[in-house]
Amino acid sequence: MPQNLLTEAKIKSVKPTDLDWKLSDGGGLFLLVKPTGSKPWRRKYRLQGKENLLAIGSFPQVSLAEARTTREKTHPIPPMSGSTLSLEALAERKRAREVSLHTAGRRTLESHQQRHHRALSGRNITTAIPNGRCASDADGHS
């Protein structure tokens, strides 16, 4: 749940350093403070287990209130954050991939069965045993 940790005064007082650093507001929203002095808003989220970032805009062009509103509108997943796929489309792709893998596995099994059947169909199994007898016949047992 968003915690709203930042204030406008705190953001304005932030000074850049030699490295990028983050000021978190909670709920995945943070302000990235760059060495150049720019302060872009970012929203971190996960989609299908992968971490992604949504660029919202830079402070002061995008205020703290606007960034929070964007965070709330995009909760839990940004609808158009570089990926134009909806959750339904992602689920459909996953189902199609599973069906495809199942079909490929079934075809491979059928192919192996057909080759095995062809290999055995032309053979007379008794020709592989000397004199055409089973081992029990060789012992004199019938």
Word description of this protein:
- The chain has 4 helices and 4 strands; from the N terminus they run H-E-E-E-E-H-H-H.
- With 142 residues, the protein is of the alpha+beta class.
- The chain folds into 2 domains: 8-83, Double Stranded RNA Binding Domain (2-Layer Sandwich), CATH 3.30.160.390; 85-121.
- The longest helix is centred in the last third of the chain and has 35 residues, at 87-121.
- The chain is rod-shaped, with a radius of gyration of 33 Å.
- Mean pLDDT is 77; it is low at 78-82.
How do you describe this structure in short?
With 142 residues, the protein is an alpha+beta fold.
Key words describing this protein structure:
single chain; 4 helices; 21% strand; four-stranded antiparallel sheet; alpha+beta; Double Stranded RNA Binding Domain
- Count the beta strands: 4
Order of helices and strands: HEEEEHHH
Looking at the structure, the CATH topology of the largest domain is: Double Stranded RNA Binding Domain
Helical amount: 25-40%
Architecture of the largest domain in CATH?
2-Layer Sandwich
Mean of pLDDT: 77
Structural class: alpha+beta
Tally of helical segments: 4
Give the low-confidence spans.
Answer: 78-82
The strand order across the widest sheet is 1-2-3-4
Query: What would you call the shape?
Result: rod-shaped
Query: What is the distance, rounded to the nearest whole angstrom, between the alpha carbons of the first and last residues?
Result: 82 Å
Strand count, sense and closure of the main sheet? 4 strands, antiparallel
CATH superfamily of the largest domain: Integrase, DNA-binding domain
Tell me what portion of residues adopts beta-strand conformation: 15-25%
CA radius of gyration:
33 Å
Q: Assign the CATH class of the largest domain.
A: Alpha Beta
